[in-house]
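User: Teach me something about this protein's shape.
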Amino acid sequence: MFKKILIANRGEIACRVIRSARAMGIATVAVYSDADAKAPHVRMADESVRLGPPPASESYLVADLIIEACKATGAEAVHPGYGFLSERESFARALAEAGIAFIGPPPKAIAAMGDKIESKKLALAAQVNVVPGFIGEIDSTDHAVEIANGIGYPVMMKASAGGGGKGMRLAWSETDVRETFDAVRREGLASFGDDRVFIEKFVENPRHIEIQLIGDQQGNLVYLGERECSVQRRHQKVVEEAPSPFVTPEMRKAMGEQAVALAAAVGYYSAGTVEFIAGADRSFYFLEMNTRLQVEHPVTEEVTGLDLVELMIRVAAGEPLPFRQEDVKLNGWAIENRVYAEDPYRGFLPSTGRLVRYRPPAEIRDDEGVTRVDDGVFEGGEVSMFYDPMIAKLVTWAPTREEAIDRQIEALDSFQIEGIGHNVDFLSALMQHERFRDGRLTTGFIAEEYPDGFEGAPADAELLRDLATIAALAAYETDRRACSISDQLNGPAAPPALRVVRIGGVEHEIRFEPYEGGMLAYVDGDEPSELVGRWRPGRSLFRGRLDARSRTVQIARRGRQWRLTAHGASHFVDVLPAHIAMLSRHMIEKVPPDLSRFLICPMPGLLTALHVGEGDSVEAGQPLAVVEAMKMENILRAEKTGVVRKVDARPGDSLAVDQVILEFE
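Assistant: First, the predicted structure itself:
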């Protein structure tokens, strides 16, 4: 067994590999760029080596620097994680030439499966179901249009070396192909160093199902069940679960056997994933094979009880698998939500900046279930524009799917992130969505259910009433502390007995009657509710119970209002003494300014293209500019017809969020 390994990655996956290596008694070496000098994976490892400046092209993607770090520290093997060099055949070969083990598949398998065009040819030869499409290189936009017209719309354009949602565009018409084909090529070149593109038929209403494989160097290959990854946004997975609520035992066996046949055809060993799309009739087609550890591997670990990272390390050291296919059993249900640095309230735009507050939910592992957080960030750290925007992976396991979903909602309620935009509210809304809970999923789920964007999860009357009570409690406790402090609220008088609370357009009158261990809350003169739970000024989280209802609520003071966040939405609540509430009804409401005359940059990024100039007329929906952020090109379009009055930015400019690009007459 290896005595020391190097992790050629960063963030949560580097931390994940270090944890397994440490449990095996293996020393670890972390590598880092200047942006990650204080990152958790650097602190966790036994040793660390600086690679270079923040851009990945000058640090994490430079194979020679990784090999030099191995030689300098005596690392015998390298675990690549996912992304970066994990599927780079040349990297695996360079390690072998240097006498360093690669904790992954053989180079020839990486080459065969990493090229999506060649992998489809191999899949056909191995009698694996393949999506109809053009398997070959495409020379130009005109050639792409000719191919797409021949296949029939809709079609999917994909970078041949792509992955992780980058270098992919769905085209519903010839116009879409002409608009975005070059963008797919550029994203493929920028992210993977390969601008080749292939086109295939897009299966409408598909489900994304993938099979996890593990194999050893002795020729043993097994599949570890499936994961469903249908809940996606812009081809980026958001929610994953194992097993799938759609897959039958017969379908699982058929998909697993095809996946094993494909892997065997290229002499595969280590962990790998074969991805399929499935139709409503349970037909399925090969998409691609990922020759690495997947982001969503924890859900497979939770339902199988296996440590995939440990197995990868043991296989790389030459050990055989300790089990066979008949030994693999699936137990319970696991769900993973990806917590991203993006703002769902602003069209899911990427967000960067400092994590002013980062308090993930407590990790739990007991007979009732599992709550697991895989992350690689820390409070006070920074989410950089240079890397993937994922903050953490929240994983829950329970005996049933419904229980695993409910554990997600409970954990998300207590997931505290401040300083940057994040998608925690959106994830909670997904978990509560009736269609998700019923398992009626397709890859178009998010686009279909949130066509106009996300505005927070809907709250029923009972939740709003409970939040009003909790807001009144926060105001009551704040006033009670103020009354006990000299010169505040005119001396040590008692807090006002009655408060008027406004939430969701509804007004409630609430008063409290404390007793030892809790208090009674009288709402609108109804029978009292029993409120049990402590909250003190300055605390950001309330955990308690209203009658039989458990509530976890994030509480923050925002000016004269309270912001309460729970169950996928933030609610701004007014809590006023009765006489002030009466006077406030006569206040004039402030109208926000009209910003429709400006094209505003929605996220920090680089302005790579500007399609109009001063005096140009524009139509609604017309592309105006392209902003690149986190390796993704974002097309900014006109919201309405107008004329450009002034250009405030030029291609090549680095833009801040809300910076004005164009002004209209």
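Now, about its shape. Residues 461-484 form the longest helix (24 residues). The chain has five domains: 4-103, 132-201, 208-449, 461-584, 598-664. If you'd like, I can walk through any region in more detail.
User: That's plenty for now, thanks!
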